[in-house]
Amino acid sequence: MAHTGVGGLNGFTSGFLHPISGLDHVVAMVAVGIWGAQLGMPAIWILPVTFPIVMAFGGVLGVYGVPLPAVEYGIAFSGIVLGLMVAFEAKVPLWFAGIVVSVFAIFHGHAHGAELPSATDPISYSAGFVLATGLLHLCGIAIGLLDRWRAGAVFMRACGALIALVGIYYLREALV
Amino acid sequence: MALMPIQAQAHLSGVQIDDFWLGALHPLITLVDALAILALGMLAGQSGEVAGLRVAATFAAMMGAGATASLYNIEGPWVGWITTGSLLVLGGLVALSMQLPLLLLLALAMISGFAHGMSIGLEIEDPIKPWQFIPGVAVAGFFGTFYAMFMVVKLKPWWTKIGVRVIGSWIAAVGLLLVALDSLKPAAV
After folding, report:
1. Which domain holds residue B38?
2. pTM of structure
């Protein structure tokens, strides 16, 4: 369940490292930022604003111990779907992008929230993983700024393909 | 020395530091209080400079009142709920970029200030002098809220306004998780 490999669930550092130390989390968070940048205004900021809130709802489910079926599959699929959205530069309506992002945010949030009651300093832990998630979105948005150049746009789509491949890898690992 | 152990003290007692400074530091280094100060300041800033000054002053005064009330054992489980819930509410309002009526802003400042002040005051132990500590808390509450408000008012680039909303969403997310966590705690007997 806990994939961070970080010993000691305490404090800001542990919470901050939780999303960062899981490549499955990292690629999905970055993909949200890139996809938002590809979609342009207002998605570029609505998605990173929506994601933490919905992720927190998923975290609440984890805190309450509400079982969410196939969390690892959901996280793996988030990489695949979001990666493909970026790779194909999918121009979808904002409401659709919001729904896609929100569904996956719940899975990611559940994974973080399930470990929250074990944290010796849950406040700092929560702040840590929320901040890390936000910063990963910002990384994706920063990559998305390359969109103004043709080569940059190609690079972004290549990043999306790579993210999708990472998602496929984790899906395979989950299936084994 | 190992044969003569001394009792370990909580972080707010027996500290050889000016009690006013200790009081001023406390809300700024305690994450739940610092985030509430930041969120309220940003919310006040979104509503304009004049509203912001009044909100900062009200919040500071109520922090002092709450800390003072804690000395008289006026407390309850609602303190924890309001302190964590304030992050959810204030952060969410910032994320929504709500320009609220002044009265509502002042009400939010009063309620959250009193609760946060009380939660801080409950940690006062001997030999901390409350009449030095509590003013420090109030001063920190004012300057922290005012600074956050001022920064938001003075932000000019369009993307900074969005950054404020993003930070608000982060604070709201933390608040939501903490409220859920508080709900799991057994009720005090």
Report:
1. 19-180
2. 0.82
